[in-house]
Write a structure and sequence with these properties.
This protein is α+β, with helices and mostly antiparallel strands. It has six helices and twelve strands.
């Protein structure tokens, strides 16, 4: 939890009580600027499938406020409860490619992601319901109480604390400690990536030549 992480950081840095508040702010900074902008985001940041409704004749669909990135195995579906398969997945394309298709209204089939919006094509002729799956920001560490945890503190506290420790070691001008924390951060990140890949692969049946292998 947040309190334990802050205490452990203080212990590693020489039991400096003057860093208690700073360490919490640094963990939040690390979460936002390092951990949640990596090429491979972990499973525990994946959202629940949420609903979104577009506006008729408006091609922009706002992304969720805590949006980090689309889920790579599917992100945006137009949901039609009357269809045999109600989950109609939209295909992602570039904005240039979508604009090149011209002006048309109807059920959206493609989308691009630009700024704070999914941009839909064709432009919705009516209000449609969409299902959205995405990686979302973890709860801010600064918003937690001492005994609470977010996804990073639960599943990857070693990586979070090592990155924060490197920042704090630089702050107190301890280069040897900084290097030690950086080495720990690299190893913690590697362990999380290995565990994430193993979690994806577990119990999946892979097909080769039409037969499971």
């Amino acid at each position: 939890d947040r309190g334990t992480a802050a205490s452990l950081l203080a212990s590693r840095l020489g039991n400096r009580t003057d860093l208690d508040a700073t360490s919490i702010n640094v963990m939040q900074l690390v979460q936002e600027t390092k951990l949640e902008v990596t090429a491979e985001l972990p499973w525990f940041l994946l959202s629940e499938i949420s609903d979104a409704t577009c506006t008729a004749l408006e091609y922009r669909l706002p992304i969720p406020g805590d949006f980090l990135r689309e889920y790579e195995d599917g992100a945006l579906w137009r949901y039609d409860a009357t269809a045999t398969n109600p989950w109609i997945e939209l295909e992602k394309d570039s904005l240039d490619a979508i604009l090149a298709r011209g002006d048309a209204n109807g059920p959206p089939l493609w989308y691009s992601l630009d700024g704070d919006y999914f941009r839909l094509y064709p432009k919705p002729d009516i209000a449609y319901t969409f299902k959205v799956l995405y990686y979302q920001e973890a709860t801010a560490i600064t918003a937690l109480s001492s005994g609470q945890e977010n996804g990073w503190l639960k599943w990857a506290p070693d990586w979070l604390m090592a990155e924060a420790g490197a920042w704090l070691a630089q702050h107190i001008r301890n280069p040897a400690m900084k290097m030690e924390f950086e080495k720990e951060a690299q190893e913690a990140r590697r362990r999380l990536l290995i565990f994430s890949e193993a979690r994806k692969a577990a119990n999946r049946r892979y097909i080769m030549g039409g037969k499971p292998v």
